[in-house]
Amino acid sequence: MTDDSGSVRYARVEATGIDVAYETFGAAGATPVVLVMGLGTQMIAWPDELCRTLAQRGMFVIRHDNRDIGLSTHLDGIRAPSPQAVLFCRARPPYLVEDMALDTLGLLDALGLLSAHLVGASMGGFISQTVAIKAPLRVRSLTLMMTSTGSLRVGRPHARTILAAVRRPRPANVEEAVDTVVETFRRIGSPGYPFDEPHVRDLARRSLARSNDQAGFARQLAAVLAQRDRTDALRALDIPTTVVHGLADRLVDPSGGRALARALAGARLVEVPGMGHDLPGPILGRFADEITRTVAEGEQRLASRR
User: Fold this and answer.
1) What percent of the chain clears pLDDT 70, i.e. is strictly above it?
2) pLDDT, tens digit (0-9, with 9 covering 90-100), for 123-137
3) Residue 164, domain member (yes or no)
């Protein structure tokens, strides 16, 4: 099995005018799996170990930077409205989750993929669901991790988590920015597993070296806050799906994962004790197993239709 990681490439999405930066692991002819990351988080947050494990199991793994993060196109010069203005419908965001879904579909087009398996974490789960709603025949399976339906009734962050984020002063330099990332993940991470501070610090430094765009984060946040409730649209889908959610998630309450599993026909719900809103190193193998099982179900479904 070849490993094509380490070289960033770019795909031009004609529908949205976005250049999507991406990396791949494994052989291009293998089963395609697209990893979609969350709010303000770059593709390198998908652990190399997880990507390589999936590639070794016969998958062509594609991870990418969403718009306004990492090395993909940033909509510089466009100011995001305040979160309050978006929540109370007093202002429109610069773009929507639906536009980010079109970016993902454009990446598939650029790679010549008629369909793929999608793995979405947090906001990446919002995007993955939206891709499936827009173009169900292009999605072979869904693995939705620490995410929700878009309904304001479920998956709500814990109040203390929001207050801590609001009260945190803006970093004045790179080291303060790294410290902020560390403290954020210490708060929202997995209390049931050891906190790997060296890993988080290293990931933060590498991410900031690639891109540090607070305005881009604000635009992504506006899109998340403006998202619609997808529950009814999800009920119409018939796609092999696994929902993975940590029972200690303080950013997206486990009620979000449970609502997803109820809305998606035949979805399998995997609740993980001690897991918060991150990807703990000690259970990367379990994540790989859940993705592998879901991909296998999707491939069986695809083969039965041929």
Assistant:
1) 96
2) 999 999 999 999 999
3) no
Q: Is 77 exposed, middle or buried, given 0-12, 13-18 or 19+ CB atoms closer than 10 A?
A: exposed
Taking only Cα atoms into account, the Rg of the chain, rounded to an integer number of angstroms, comes to: 18
Average of per-residue pLDDT across 44-55: 98
Residue 121 belongs to domain spanning: 9-157+213-304
Residues shown for the chain? 306
pLDDT digits (tens, 9 = 90+) for 98-114: 999 999 999 999 999 99
Residues 6+ apart with CB under 8 A from 36: 64, 66, 104, 118, 119, 120, 121, 124, 125, 127, 128
- The pTM (predicted TM-score) of the whole model is 0.96
Distance CA(243)–CA(221), nearest Å, equals 23
182 occurs within a structural domain:
no
Answer yes or no: are the C-beta atoms of 223 and 97 closer than 8 Å: yes
Helix or strand run (H / E) with residue 143? strand 139-145
The tally of domains found in the chain comes to: 1
Tokens of 47: 């652990």
The full DSSP string for 44-78 is GGS-HHHHHHHHHTTEEEEEEPPTTSTTS---TTP
